[in-house]
Write a structure and sequence with these properties.
Length: about 375
């Protein structure tokens, strides 16, 4: 066992002892918290620390180890009161995450289920606040889009671009309107009323979907159940990816499925980037050639396109440092969209050691997705 893991485990024991003293783990929980985890040793400790310290509500935490090859399971087991179970190897046609979620929900008994990812951090009092919001709004599915943390330059550049597009494609005002077919949820934080979830088939009903979160929201909304989706500021935050390679794999898996027309979107974003940079460069060239009027017009065109771009990027709720760097995320986003579309069609998308082969037909943000899929 590595020294780093021993240190992590020792830190968890202090939290576990405080948990026992406050008697958070109660026999009749209001919420069953289900955390699927596959090779999450770098983040699961922070997630569980934030969960076991929740107050004001009875809950039970279940970590579903989805075949981890690192210290994920050992770290989870170091938390007293946290139940750790093993996920079965996913059957053909079922995604790994869905298989883990199905396993975690199987023994749940609480009125509410919270499905949350191992890379999340839950702010103090957020669990009780979420249940209160769900009950006050009378919803059957509540989902928060966590505050996004970025570390590397590539995260700062790309993440605001992606989340600005998501905000444009899945605006909360449309998602939350029962009369609008647009449906969305963020799998990093989905709370459901268990009775409704089970009556609709749960994750078993969407198990062949790579985007099981959006598919689950569509089932709820199509069945006339009320859903509520919003930014999770003050509730939950996350750092989705901790390196360029994992970010590349993660968005390659998802991007072509998230947007109705990925190639058209890639083309428009490429044109946008070319317009901002191209007009700025032309302005310099014309100024050097003393064509001052043309130079000023080119700079004005570049500034206008860039202003429209920034207005859209601000919807992603990232700090201004990331917003400014996001210009360089445009070509990266364009390339990833094309890559995601190409590999999805070829059945060569990989994520955490599994290959996802699927056929996708998508006709808009509010439409259904038909898909043949398998895991290899």
């Amino acid at each position: 066992m590595s020294r780093r893991f021993i240190a992590i485990a020792m830190n968890q024991s202090d939290v576990s002892n405080s948990l026992i003293k406050r008697n958070h783990y109660q026999p009749q929980p209001i919420v069953d918290i289900i955390v699927p985890a596959r090779d999450e040793e770098r983040s699961i400790g922070r997630c569980l620390r934030s969960l076991v310290n929740q107050e004001g509500i009875a809950f039970r935490i279940t970590v579903v180890d989805d075949g981890s090859s690192d210290h994920t399971r050992e770290i989870a087991e170091s938390f007293a009161g946290v139940r750790v179970i093993q996920a079965e190897e996913p059957a053909p046609g079922i995604s790994g995450k869905s298989s883990a979620l199905i396993r975690g929900a199987r023994d749940a008994t609480a009125p509410w289920l919270l499905f949350t990812d191992a890379d999340t951090e839950h702010l103090a009092g957020s669990l009780a606040a979420a249940v209160s919001e769900a009950e006050e709004r009378g919803v059957d599915l509540l989902s928060y889009s966590p505050e996004q943390e970025a570390g590397t330059w590539s995260e700062h550049a790309l993440m605001p671009v992606v989340f600005a597009e998501l905000a444009r494609t899945y605006p909360p005002q449309r998602v939350n309107d029962p009369a609008d077919p647009t449906a969305a949820a963020n799998g990093q934080y989905i709370m459901v009323r268990r009775s409704v979830y089970e009556s609709l088939g749960g994750h078993q009903a969407v198990a062949n979907n790579i985007l099981e979160d959006v598919a689950l929201a569509r089932i709820f909304k199509a069945s006339g159940k009320k859903i509520w989706f919003r930014l999770g500021a003050g509730i939950v935050r996350t750092r989705m990816y901790r390196g360029f390679q994992t970010m590349l794999e993660g968005w390659t898996k998802n991007l072509a499925l998230l947007f109705p027309h990925p190639l058209w979107l890639a083309l428009w974003r490429a044109i946008e980037f070319a317009g901002i940079v191209g007009f700025a460069v032309l302005g310099v060239i014309w100024m050097v050639q003393e064509s001052h009027w043309l130079g000023l017009m080119a700079w004005l065109a570049s500034a206008l396109i860039y202003s429209v771009f920034l207005v859209r990027i601000r919807r992603a709720h990232f700090p201004w440092t990331a917003n400014l760097m996001s210009l360089f995320g445009l070509p990266l986003f364009t390339g990833l969209l094309v890559r995601s579309w190409r590999l999805s069609r070829a059945g060569a998308v990989r994520w955490k050691g599994r290959t996802y082969a699927h056929f996708v037909t998508q006709q808009g943000a509010g439409s259904s997705i038909s898909r043949r899929s398998k895991l290899e």
